[in-house]
Write a structure and sequence with these properties.
This protein has 3 domains: about 10-130, Creatinase/prolidase N-terminal domain (Creatine Amidinohydrolase, Chain A, domain 1, 3-Layer(aba) Sandwich), CATH 3.40.350.10; about 145-290, Creatinase/prolidase N-terminal domain (Creatine Amidinohydrolase, Chain A, domain 1); about 290-575, Creatine Amidinohydrolase (Alpha-Beta Complex), CATH 3.90.230.10. α3 runs parallel beside α4 and α13 crosses α14 (about 330-340). By secondary structure, the protein is of the alpha+beta class. Helices cover about 35% and strands about 20% of the residues. Strands 4-3-2-1-5-6 form a 6-stranded mixed beta sheet, sandwiched between helices. The chain has a 6-stranded mixed beta sheet with strand order 12-11-10-8-13-14. The protein has a 4-stranded antiparallel beta sheet with strand order 21-28-27-24.
Length: about 575
């Protein structure tokens, strides 16, 4: 830093595409800080350093940075500055902040500029991570890129490009630089395995009224994919030519480039090209892919049923091996799940690293067992299993909290209250002008009655054969998106008591049109996930009649959907798990 004239250096969790999950090549924040969370920044000054973590990672971050000089900044807590505010505070008068322009998006840089302005600070683009992290650094990924067939995607790349051009015209634009990998994957039906558990290819796409240029490492594009792209009006250019390519554009265009998703280096090139007028606006692809088409929905329903069969077989094996006295660990859980899911002919990859968390480990929302640090399952307490898979015909995400034996009264109450939250959002009916944050309060109310809350959203959207997290909608206290028929969201409330217990119950649910009448348009949810929910921990008399009725009806549907796919012994097991309960 001193040699480069930099007073403060910021490393975000990021890659050139604002990805949530990063290729190992871009995990610089973890390499330098030791923290493995998402949605974070690491700031280093000449005398101190700090890392930011949101509520999902408070416990984990404390553990991972213990014994270092690094301060933990708990995002959202009273008196805790944002990373941008902190930079503005610690930067000396007239000082310089350094960052990598490829891994910082333009919105972050714009926010930093505002905070640095009172001190007349400046921003310098550097690549210190590349200079310092050389030995042992994973190579940039370049896995084979292929095309998801139209029979699964519902529309061809050419058809989606025309849809996008229509949306751009509505927004007063003639072109777009697509930088987000999930948006690009949906637009061109392009898939690869560049990111662990996420079937995307690192690439950019520049779309004009009569052209679509895909910037990608061309050697990794399969011949079939290349032919399919060219047949759909897409030409290929080298990935590393993106900056020179956009600088060389001479055709006048009004280019939509969302500052929150386009990296600072690319955005600067667009702004400095006199032929291009840059418009910072919401990426229309986010909303376009957020509503699943009928072909996608049909495949999602089928893939979830096959995934449910894998979950049933997993639970049967888990119970049998524990009953036989076998010593199992959190790692064993992952192995059993993978065995059953990967046996599916359409299985591609787990949709995220399985979270198998026993006892107090489950209080860390994104805990991951490792060979060096994992728990042995005991015949008491809860085992939380949050897992999913991506198949050729859909992506799944499910959490179940399994009782392994004796439970405390608090554990039973926490479980029952969590189930109330889960049921209340699952059976919700609302007018179509109610937004996501309003729905989020429905889920939390049973816990709020007991002065309990969870420091995360209630649910998130899920991509089709893609990222397990996507937008535009999410059930949380900030999202103002209106739910629409065809939108998929998770329903996953929970209780997390640090060091003691973590409980979460999660289904994917589909928004559908329920009715129109003189009062307006009513919407509701129906389940995509059909896996039994444990009933033995439920405290009698806590669920109301409507909640009990919903749970019994859900289990009736689970049995109807799964029984034809199971063996006789498996059906008998399922019938027991789906037995109706009383009030």
């Amino acid at each position: 830093m001193k040699a480069n004239g930099v007073d403060v250096y910021l490393i975000p969790v990021g890659d050139p595409h604002s990805s949530e999950y990063l290729p190992d090549h871009y995990t610089s924040l973890t390499y330098f800080s030791g923290f493995h969370g998402e949605n974070s920044n690491f700031v280093v000054t000449m005398t101190e350093s700090a890392v930011w973590a949101d509520g999902r990672y408070f416990v984990q971050a404390e553990k991972e940075i213990a014994g270092t000089e690094i301060q933990l900044m708990r995002m959202g807590e009273p008196g805790v500055p944002t990373a941008e505010e902190y930079c503005g505070k610690v930067l000396p008068e007239g000082g310089t902040l350094g960052l990598c322009g490829l891994t910082a998006n333009c919105a972050l840089v714009n926010s930093l500029k505002k905070e640095l302005e009172p001190k007349h600070g400046s921003i310098k683009t550097l690549f210190l991570e590349d200079e310092l992290w050389v030995e042992g650094r994973p190579a940039r990924p370049a896995t084979p890129a292929w095309i998801l067939p139209k029979e699964y995607a519902g529309f061809s790349p050419a058809e989606k490009l025309e849809q996008l051009r229509g949306k751009l015209k509505e927004q007063g634009c003639t072109a777009q630089l697509v930088g987000k990998l999930d948006n690009l994957a949906w637009l061109l039906n392009l898939r690869a395995m560049d990111i662990e558990c996420t079937p995307y290819a690192m690439a950019y796409c520049y779309v004009t009224p009569n052209r679509a240029v895909l910037f990608i490492d061309q050697a990794r594009v399969t011949p079939e994919a290349k032919a399919e792209l060219e047949a759909n009006g897409v030409t290929l250019a080298d990935y590393d030519s993106i900056l020179d390519g956009m600088a060389a554009e001479t055709e006048p265009q009004t280019v939509l480039a969302e500052s929150a998703t386009v990296n600072y280096a690319v955005y600067q090139v667009l702004e400095n090209n006199p032929a291009l007028t840059v418009k910072d606006a919401a990426d229309p692809l986010l909303a376009m892919k957020g509503v699943k088409n009928e072909v996608e929905l049909a495949h999602l329903r089928e893939s979830h049923l096959r995934d449910a069969v894998a979950m049933v077989r997993f639970q049967i094996e888990l119970e049998n091996r524990l009953a036989a006295g076998e010593q199992l660990t959190e790692l064993t859980v992952d192995e059993i799940l993978h065995k059953y899911r990967s046996a599916d002919d359409k299985f591609l990859v787990e949709s995220f690293g399985t979270i198998a968390a026993y006892g107090g480990n489950a209080a860390m929302m994104h805990y991951h067992a490792t060979p060096e640090d994992h728990a042995v399952l005991q015949r008491k307490g809860f085992l939380l299993v949050d897992s999913g898979a991506t198949y050729l015909d859909g992506t799944t995400d499910i959490t179940r909290t399994y009782p392994l034996g004796e439970l405390t009264e608090d554990e039973r109450l926490f479980y029952t209250w969590t189930l109330q939250c889960h049921i209340d959002i699952a059976k919700a009916v609302w007018l179509d002008y109610c937004d996501c944050h309003m729905l989020d309060t429905i889920a939390r109310e049973p816990l709020w009655r007991h002065l309990i809350n969870y420091r995360c959203g209630t649910g998130h959207s899920v991509s089709f054969v893609g990222n397990v997290h996507e937008g535009p909608h999410a059930l949380n206290g900030r999202n103002t998106t209106l739910m629409r028929p065809g939108m998929i969201v998770t329903d996953e409330p929970g209780v997390y008591e640090a060091g003691e217990v973590g409980i979460r119950i999660e289904n994917e649910i589909e928004c559908y049109h329920k009715a129109d009448n003189q009062y307006g348009t009513f919407l509701a949810f129906r389940p995509l996930t059909f896996v039994p929910i444990a009933t033995s921990p439920i405290v009698p008399g806590v669920l109301d009649k409507e909640q009990v009725a919903w749970l019994n009806d859900y289990h009736r549907k689970v049995f109807e959907q799964l029984a034809p796919r199971l063996t006789e012994d498996e059906r008998a097991w399922l019938a027991e798990k789906c037995a109706a309960i009383g009030c």
